[in-house]
Please model this.
Amino acid sequence: MRWRKILAGMILTLTLSCGLNAQKWERVGPEGGMVVSLEAGAGNEVYLGTADGHVFASDDRAQSWELRGRVGRRLDAVVTRIVVDPRESNRIFAAVWYQQPGTGGGVFESKDRGRNWSLLGLPGEAVRALEIAPARPDELVAGTRTGVFRSVDGGKNWARISPEDDQEIRNLDSLVIDPRDPQVIYAGTFHLPWLTRDGGKNWKPVIAGIIDDSDIMSLRLDSTNPSRVYMSACSGIYRSENQGTNWTKLQGVPYAARRTQVIVQDPENPKTFYAGTTEGLWVTRDGGESWTRTTSKDWVVNSVVVLAAADRKTERVVLGTEGRGVEISDDAGVTFAGANRGFTHVVVKQLVTNKRDNGRLLMIAQRSASELLESRDYGESWASLPLTAINRGKPSSLNADEVQELLASPWGWLLRMENGQFWLWQESKQSWKEWKLMLPAARATGGKGRASKFEPARQLKPEAAIAFSQNDAVVATNLGLVRCRESGICAHIKVFARAASVRSIWVSDAGRDMNVVLDNKMGLSSDRGVNAVWEDLPVPQDEVVWSDAEESAAEKSIFLGTSNGLFCFHQSTGSWQRIEGGLPAGQIGKWLRSSGIWAVSERGGALYLSQNKGASWRRVDRDGERGRFTGLVATSTGTVLAGSQSEGLLRLEVEKPAVANSRN
Model:
């Protein structure tokens, strides 16, 4: 499939009159992100699964990572479990469920260590657990939303081994198979643990000693005594000495950390267990009698693997976390260090650039929590920007999760919050100040024979549309369109003074030219809003996403991003035309127009580039970059930075198009 894509891209490049040459994508950070699953492979190899179908791999004991491939084509595929074939290390399996409700998932297979994947079985099933029988490697058992399934031929064929209409043995979260007898299978559901001793013909709940209605998130058999079972549930960690006949609740892990995602036994020190919880990593070195937390309680640990000692060195404990990415320990889990080189899987919610300050970027990134990050070197390095705000002389704190929009104003960064407030960054004070918009008090001239009327100062309520010139801001408010200064003092823009339902604004750097989408029309002004001419829109107003304009000596071109494609208006012709040339008429997302490069993203996750001002386009995101783009920035060196909702910050190096030789 990948080779077909490459071949198709090569053919397209040759057929376009001014196509793009080779592109090179690079992940530039921030490092880390959400890890859903980890699994040790052969030798020094470790595999990592994400919540969008990607599989990363490390061949140096989790020290550094490379993106291997994507499981399937969907962007919402949660790789909840990775299993390596014990007989053939190149072959790995993945348990997958899709985040979109009702769409299922499946068991996927790779025969080349995660580079290429195919659906192996259980299409339409949301697979949440997967295990290989230690005593019979051809036998796989999968736990899904609807029950337990087994394959005895390496995944080619599957059969349900739990009752089809059973209301209890469903919504599986965990499985474990007895290494002595593959007929003995434990299954953990959203509700209770279950056991079969005859390969699924008969099941019974094993609940004596546990708190009822416990979500069974992890099951582990003691490597020295498979009759001893460890189980994690929302009510705590339990141990059974008799195959689940009776359970004892282990003390030491507090109630607050009861969401134990995974329990892993140290293969060389069998009394040592690692419990990954929503409040850090807990370790026991006496078989569960006592526990100690060895990380910060702020860590959410989703997965744990213990790598055998290599070259006579110590074992390595590897954690997969919700936001910090990968953490490793070489002292049996006492201390940890980040190991995310090559693993960039941060959610970039928004990305903007300050065109007046070369190289300066601002993003909202989500790792374990949302944070505001700033770069002053086009994304090479990032630092947290404080969220301290000064309100009426008193310090307070803003919440990054409540930032609705990042903006680059002429005076610095500007945050629009969900409650409608604006906050302006004060570089000298390293804090935010509320930007309140006001119409000053004024004396309105009365009509003939009437006294002038005094109008008091009024605070304005900003609406969605806003644009900036070099010196001021043009803002849609509850009292019409206004032009505002850094102080927050605003004045009505004459021709749009009573404008309501403004959809989009564009203003030139000098501030004279303006395009305003409102009332299903576009108003064009070239005199700072004193006068305007009106043009029809090519689509209904509610389909408009943004507007932009390009000025030249010959004519002015206006661009409109819509949910039905990209449109251009030339004043010389007075009409709109959809831009095509390989660009589909889909939902337009982010837009970049710089010298030599135009770029546009589709809301569904594609990125298209043009190097001939829109005459022809080429899709440039590959499988590894597929995802919804949340910001596009052109650098001074001709590269494109793309913020991704799943891949972090990506950099695309675009080669200049070759110039064809002319013949006399």
